[in-house]
Amino acid sequence: MKQLILMAGIICMLGSLSIAIASELPPMSVWKTPTCGCCGKWVEHMQDAGFKVEVNDVEDLDEVKRMSHIPERLRSCHTATVGDYKIEGHVPADDVKRLLATNPNVEGLAVPGMPSGSPGMENGERDSYDVFTFSKDGTTKVFNSHK
After folding, report:
1. CB neighbours of 140 closer than 8 A, spacing ≥ 6?
2. Least crowded by CB within 10 Å, which of 2, 79, 83, 114?
3. Burial of 6 (0-12, 13-18, 19+ CB in 10 A)
4. What is the pTM of this model?
5. Nearest to 138 by CA among 72, 64, 61, 65
6. Do 105 and 127 touch, CB atoms closer than 8 A?
7. Hey, what domains does the chain have and what are their CATH numbers?
8. Helices in 68-122 by DSSP H: which ranges?
9. b/e for 15-47, b at 16 or more Cβ within 10 A?
């Protein structure tokens, strides 16, 4: 009986810890077109990871991408902001959390295109893809590779 009570206490503490960690995540805003299903699935992926997400449905994303300094070669179907960073495309939540934890001097992260198997693009197939950092001057660098 003591072991059961101890385990219940540990489970409660771990649950409290995960709530505290999730509450430390900054809110996220996402701009997408109203009809894009994979964008909606990516939003769900981010919410499942603990982000509070505000969705902005717009017909034309070009201005959002220009103002966010997203290099054309890195563009995808949706753009987000979280903290001081921009997130372009199907970036995994763990990569966004690592970006926030390490706080590098970049504009944000991007996954160009719509690779199969990336968050929101789960269709049974899996492509290898890279997550890139990008800066206002157009400099890019691989942040993480997903195989």
Report:
1. 71, 74, 110, 132, 133, 134
2. 2
3. exposed
4. 0.84
5. 72
6. no
7. 26-146 (3.40.30.10)
8. 93-102
9. eeeeeeeeeebeebebbbeeebebbbebbebbe
pLDDT of residue 131 exceeding 80, the answer is yes
CA distance 85 to 64: 14
How far apart (Å, rounded) are the C-alpha atoms in residues 33 and 40? 10
Single-letter code of the amino acid located at 85: Y
Residues 19-77 have pLDDT tens digits of 444 458 999 999 999 999 999 999 999 999 999 999 999 999 999 999 999 999 999 99
Return the beta strands (E) in the chain as ranges.
Answer: 28-32, 53-57, 79-82, 85-89, 108-111, 129-134, 140-146
On the CB side of 14, how many CA atoms lie within 13 Å of its CA?
Answer: 6
Please report which helix (H) or strand (E) contains residue 83, including its range.
Answer: none
Phi and psi angles of residue 80, each rounded to the nearest 5 degrees, phi first: -130, 160
Backbone angles phi, psi at 41, to 5 degrees: -65, -35
What residues contact residue 138 under an 8 Å CB cut-off, 6+ apart? 71
Report how far residue 76's alpha carbon sits from residue 83's, in angstroms, rounded to the nearest whole number. Answer: 20
Amino acid 2: pLDDT: 52
pLDDT value at residue 5: 42
